[in-house]
Amino acid sequence: MAAPKGPGGKHESDLDAREAEILTSVIQAHVVSGGPVGSRALQRGSGLDLSPATIRNVMSDLEERGLLAQPHASAGRVPTERAYRLYVDRLMGTPRLPAGQAEAIDEAFRAQRGEIPELLGEAARQLSTVSQYVGVVLAPEMRRIVVEKLDFVRLDARRVVAILVDRSGVVHNRMLETVEPFEQGELDRMSGELTQRFAGRTLPAIREAIGAELGEGRAAYDRFRSRLLELGRLAVALAEGPKDILVEGASNLLAAPEFTDLGRMRDLLRTLEQRSRLASLLEQVLEGSGVQVVIGHENPEASLSDVSVVAASYGTGDRVLGTVGIVGPTRMEYARTIALVDHLAHVLTRFLSEQGP
Question: Using CA atoms, how far apart are residues 46 and 114, in angstroms rounded to an integer?
Fold first, then answer.
């Protein structure tokens, strides 16, 4: 899609050095103050070697091109979503996380002793605490995990717990209701055979293989194999549970002046609580690479049109497992937020990879 054009057919992204400098200064000043930025205040606060009149004229041009807006006739100007997009894509420079902050995050992860649920929880906490926005983590999806081991534990004659161990060390427990009774000894034999046959495969691949074998009908003549495949089918079928999202720091948004409207705040908090709509957005990140930034109305979810989402995928080796991200106002410190999300994604990937065989 071509970039929108402003007056005179000029693309909004075709900024000269002076325009780029003033737009960047307005964005940085607005991020700090939260209010409209005037030409005199900008000259004093940014160190621009330009007169207020020159700055005012350039700001007026940027407003005509849809990059700045003037809330009131007598007020200064604020950046638009287009301005933030241009800033993220072209103007902000290379995001960097201070070395001390990065080391503090790494140390917090090391303190979790490598337990997977604790690592995911720590990631959400660090994202929220360091950014002072909302930290979100999309946990590994069942369809993406690679099974390392499959165990069954008998509760009673017709209730069995299926224990799926991911190659990353994540343990997934599922309760199975069986038609026929099972003894623990038989379950142990089935655990060993299913693990031997299907270790190293994803759940969809295991489900497909079991379905094909059941479809051939040969297992019907072997009672043990028939029961083995049926139990395996139940374990894999029930493994497709709801997506798990960890959300930390939703109350941080209450301090942002953008959310003084209680109706808008309620809609946003409802989305964060329901999580399924947030999950659909985070899933899109799984298909991309690097840190992705979705600003304001770029969000497909209407209740997220007042916020920006900065997210990146994590995994083990070359396998993508989930997403880490930050939800905050469009008036956010993008460079710092992007650097933080990128670091957390790499740290989580490193610690999860260490859990593998």
Answer: 45
